[in-house]
Amino acid sequence: LEIGAAGSAGNLSGKTNDTDPFGRNEEVAKIEITVLSLAFVAAVVGNLSVLLAMYKSRRKLSRMHLFMKHLSLADLVVAFFQVLPQLCWEVTFRFYGPDFLCRIVKHLQVLGMFASTYMMVMMTLDRYIAICHPLQTLQQPTRRAYIMISSTWACSLVLSTPQYCIFSLSEVRPGSAVYDCWGHFVEPWGLRAYITWITAGIFLVPVAVLVFCYGFICRAIWRNLKCKTRRKSADAVVEATKSGILGRSSVSSVSTISRAKLRTVKMT
Fold it and tell me: Which of 12, 77, 143, 165 could be a cystine partner for 112, CB 3.0 to 4.6 Å?
């Protein structure tokens, strides 16, 4: 089985390319080119603005800002190595390049998507730890953040490596002399397994983690707000006398959760 690299490939009705025996719908192609162009410009301008703002601040980056920096870098990888190649593909209709370039492009396209998605997941996990387990934020939080970021890039690199084996420059149809960067699957179920893997790895699993983390974050914030409301109605002096050191520790924990809550609101 084979899977085409260009989304608009195929014998579709409408105005087709006269020089290619396997034409495409040019009207649909124009819409795709417009959408991809707007997405590319928005991604580049938006993420470069974030990186420029961080650079101009001249301050030591907090954990949240560190994750945002790498998330912007991952989004730029998506823009330049996923959206831009696909845009060029839509303009030329066919892939005009050697086999090794075909494999590299397909690898970088998936690498950017994995990195962007899982960087957001790691940033959410960091917020979950800061809010639901505030005492752990005192245990080398910056070092943990760098480990999470490095592991994200490493995992993205590994998970996207199979692209080198799946995609190659080959004839659209045997004997057609028309070449494109297509994916090949030995078994009939290969295409279905590939689509399932990409869908689960880039969409389903990350969404499940995000829902889990934000669910517990909302639960912790709600409990914290209820706790603060009860404290306001009590006598602060008597409560401090009864609680002693434990009370001061509890207040410190509440303060930590409040700061983490503020960062989470800014992040979202």
Answer: 77
- Residue range 124-148, pLDDT digits in tens: 999 998 888 877 666 667 888 899 9
> Can you give the residue range of the structural domain that contains 21?
2-215
Determine the distance from the C-alpha atom of residue 198 to the mean position of all C-alpha atoms in its chain, rounded to a whole number: 13
Residue 129 within any structural domain of the chain: yes
β strands within the chain, DSSP E: 2-3, 167-171, 179-184
Task: Give a yes or no: residue 81 inside a domain.
Answer: yes
The pLDDT score that the predictor gives to residue 84 is 94
Angle at 166 between CA 84 and CA 153, to 5 degrees: 60
Q: Which residue has the tokens 């009370």?
A: 247
CATH number of the domain where residue 202 is located: 1.20.1070.10
Q: For residues 90 and 6, give the distance between their C-alpha atoms in angstroms, rounded to a whole number.
A: 7
Token output for 22:
């396997």
Whether 106 is in a domain gets the answer: yes
- When divided into structural domains, the chain yields a total of 1
User: Which letter, b or e, does each residue of 199-211 get, where b requires 16 or more Cβ atoms within 10 Å of its Cβ?
Assistant: eebbeeebeebbe
For residue 171, the cross-strand partners are 179
